[in-house]
Amino acid sequence: MGYIMNLRKYVGHQRLLMVGAGVFIYQDGQLLLQRRKDNGLWGDHGGSVELSEKVEDAARRELKEETGLTALSLELMNTFSGPEFDYTYPNGDQVSMVIFSFLCRDFEGNVALQQEEVTELKWFSLDELPGDEEISPMTLPQLKACLAWLKKEREK
Questions:
Q1: CA 137 to chain CA centroid, nearest Å
Q2: Are 74 and 56 in contact (CB under 8 A)?
Q3: Which of 44, 61, 118, 130 is the most exposed place for a label (fewest CB within 10 A)?
């Protein structure tokens, strides 16, 4: 059982400070997004960092669990926190997130859906991404930052 799930036995749904690692997979002008099982919205790949786990290791672990892909390299794009990263999950669990957001372009493996947390994996071209209302609330600012990061690179 993971650290957060263990804490939930004692604190119930009350707000927890949680460190997360999120990964955007980018290849050939497309991003691989996942449709989350908990809220039905599109998101990046990631989850909570376990006790004593390096954030990058958590990003790699979550990516592998959710997509079947192995990150060969990760680029830290940004760190996100603040009131816009307070979230209540559909089950009532409340969190205040600090999220380390990574971009991964160098990966291996075959895309394989993790059915416990993900209902769909789909490649989107950058000009055909889902609308803001279809993106999970904590993913949206990260996605906008990712798109700005990629745009800045293309302008070089």
A1: 11
A2: yes
A3: 130
